[in-house]
Amino acid sequence: MELSQFEREVITQLSLNLEDSQDEVPVITARTGIFTGIAGFDSLRALEVLVALEAVFDRELPPEKVFVKRPTSETTVSDVAKAIKAIVDEAGS
Questions:
Q1: For the segment 17-32, what is each residue's pLDDT rounded down to a tens digit?
Q2: CA distance 33 to 76
Q3: Is 23 left (phi over 0), alpha (psi -120 to 50) or beta?
Q4: Quick one: which of 81, 11, 17, 80 has its CA closest to 48?
């Protein structure tokens, strides 16, 4: 699976989470900051999205491996997608 596919799935799950909460869904790209580019996005919402992504990829996705940038405020959609791709690729080998 290509990185762009992981990025699209992360964007989809972020958008669905915002829609479910009846929050405004901004334009989200691979460069969007998870905690800085999405109004109201916090650690609780991050865990909700992470649980949804675990269901999509049928893998446990430890938060400490997915939100790898420090400070986490700098984490982008692409960073999350890369971390998930690494976990999925590692499990497949």
A1: 999 999 999 999 999 9
A2: 4
A3: beta
A4: 17
